[in-house]
Amino acid sequence: MNLEEFNIIIFITGIIIGCVATLFVKSLNTRQNKQATSNSSIITIKSLQQELDSKQVIIDNFFTDSNEQLNAAEKRLAELRNVLANNASQLSNVKIEKHQASTTVTTDDSEITEPPRDYALKKDKEPGMLSESFGLDDRNRDLDLEPKRTI
Question: How do residues 73-102 score in pLDDT, each as one tens digit?
Fold first, then answer.
């Protein structure tokens, strides 16, 4: 073998080894990038969930505090009405009824919703107003609605 041929073989072998090493390094980098991306997406999902939970706690606290403040305001208003009624009876002949704080909500149970009824005046076997064939007479079907045409 000649020195020139040997140099060509070593050069080609070096190119092949370099290509294989480059592909190997690229595959390692893509694996690391995928793991980093998946880890960052997991971290992002966890941080979003924590933020959502903290916002939900803030909202719950807001409505709880608002309800407590509204109840306190209603109590103060009832006390103010009672004081006004007492003072009005002491200072003048005007009678103002004392307001009793009612915390129960009154509902009218006497009204029970019912499904719609068929209110058409009918005999037992006749179709009612809600029937699809109500108001359509068979005798009108026999009549021609259009005049006869002649040429």
Answer: 999 999 999 898 888 888 887 777 776 655
